[in-house]
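ok, trying the design again with the full structure, not the truncated one.
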């Protein structure tokens, strides 16, 4: 009788473990999907911001360029055209950021760094552990240390 009960309990325990494993896998997949969707939304907002900024900067660049060219022609001073040069680099960067391939080049560079220069990504003092977090938490709250020592 005890053997049969033990066998049934073992089978139930195994089913429960499989169920828990399935649930934790499902939860992990959902978390990954949520994080992916959040990243996609943040990237979309960043690109939208770049495009909106480009509209304003493009207008500023156009008005400034027309004004500087008109001033250079009217006063016969070609040195007034000098600010157009650096402003054109900023405009080119903004166009590349908003509509170009900047994001693809950045992703490629990031993948290259992760593959070949992974040591650059290491955190100072390594990855935080439970012990290091608890040590820091207790250091900020010394009264908790006294309570823990006295309750033991």
């Amino acid at each position: 009788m005890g053997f049969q009960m033990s066998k049934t309990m073992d089978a139930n325990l195994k089913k429960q473990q499989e169920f828990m494993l399935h649930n934790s896998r499902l939860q992990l997949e959902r978390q990954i999907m949520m994080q992916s969707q959040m990243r996609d939304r943040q990237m979309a907002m960043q690109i939208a911001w770049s495009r909106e900024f480009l509209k304003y900067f493009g207008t500023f660049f156009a008005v400034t360029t027309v004004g500087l060219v008109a001033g250079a022609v009217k006063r016969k001073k070609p040195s007034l055209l000098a600010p157009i040069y650096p402003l054109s680099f900023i405009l080119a960067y903004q166009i590349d950021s908003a509509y170009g391939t900047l994001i693809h080049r950045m992703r490629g560079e990031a993948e290259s760094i992760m593959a070949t220069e992974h040591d650059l990504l290491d955190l100072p003092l390594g990855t935080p552990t439970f012990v290091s977090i608890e040590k820091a938490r207790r250091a900020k709250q010394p009264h908790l240390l006294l309570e823990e020592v006295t309750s033991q």
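Keeping the full-length input from now on. The CA atoms of residues 129 and 135 lie 10 Å apart.
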